[in-house]
Here is the input.
Amino acid sequence: MPEIPFQQLAIVGLGLMGGSVAKALRAAGYGGRIRAALASSAAVESLQDSVEAWQIELSPVLPEVLADADLILLATPPRIMLNQLDEIARWAAASALVTDIASTKNAITRRAMDLLGSRFVGGHPVVGSELTGFHAAREDLYRGAQVILTPFPGQTDAQAVEKLRQFWTALGAEVQEMSPMAHDEALAATSHVPHLLAFMYLAGLEARFPGLENLAGGGLRDFSRIADSNPALWAEILLENRQAVRQQLQQVQQNLQLAEQLLAAGATAELQSWLSRGKTVRQQFHFPPVPV
Here is the structure.
């Protein structure tokens, strides 16, 4: 296992993403201390037996979890994370590096850097699942995945960025860097709007039930899988990145209007040309590995 430059990790939120970090570290032989902050004593009690095999210490007391941590990983939903940043800044050790795994970066990174300075480095693993919670976490979730780090040029500690690159590489990920704004624009196109379309399309079929439930093939299954994701979380993500999402939706609406015009005109050649363009673009993507 490549060397991990942290000996005490604090994870704030232990769901699918944060839990997968902890499991991946233990599966790879990491011997450092892992502590996780949960929202309540009841949440700690409900997970206590499940985390024992992974040697994760749980607590609902944030200062206790952050004490002496040299890496603090924020893994709560975006709005919760924004509300937690003041307390994170208050209790984090002065030497601790702080990062996050939220899928929106601009607002979180700006607020975190105001409070934490150059030792905050935003991050986003471009991988996930419609499943949620620690029980859905997988030790191989980040293997072969892309992780985007979003430092501010000239404002983020370069050494902190390099340490995080080592950290994610040790978990099997490939690391690249983008500005927070460029990240949010790109993810609106590749993740946020696709989720929104899946949710909204399925919602539009509501009036046709009962009647359609036994008539779906693989196309609807594959297209709609992500609509099984957490609606509350995705409402937060979409609202946090609303400007980029709205810009991308305008392009989608233009393309749908064009499709309607081609169908109305019976324009076989033009319609096929657009379908071929879509297929060609899809073939250029490097998708995350499919779990087996």
Observations:
- Residues 183-283 form a domain with the 6-phosphogluconate dehydrogenase C-terminal fold fold (CATH 1.10.3660.10).
- The longest strand covers residues 120-125.
- The chain has two domains: 8-178, 183-283.
